[in-house]
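Pinned message: reference record for IQ motif containing F5
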Amino acid sequence: MTEKTPATTEKTPAKTEKKRALTKTSAAVLIQAWWRGTLLRRSLLHAALKAWIIQSWWRKMLVKLWELRRRGALEVYAKKTWATVKLQSWYRMWRIRQRYCRLLNAVRIIQVYWRWHSCHTRGFIQGNYEIKENQLNIQLEISLGSQACKVQQCITLPIKE
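Predicted structure (tokens):
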């Protein structure tokens, strides 16, 4: 068995003083550590808030850039579509005009032959005119097969002097 010595069981005043000094020092160290931690957390919070603000701004700018690119692409697409539609309408118009000109030419040819035929079968008109001062003299000769008709007329023209 071991006996307890009075030195180990009793607290000496120097030890208590030392312990108090250690507790005061450790308390000061604890307070300083807490304060440094608070300052560090505060500075980290400020840095995180500033980074968050910059990130938010950058995201907003990316959205604007994306919107500008999308709008530009949409305008280019619209211009290409408009140009395509315009070309198609011009081509259709050209084809219709070509068809119309062919038909018009055919109608003219038919009319020429019809008029030539009707003139040779029905008759013809011959005439001349003469303008003297303010009068128009017209002489027409209309032949319809076996019948002939002559017309002479003098028309006064309203000319201001």
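Pinned by admin. Summary line: The longest strand covers residues 135-144.
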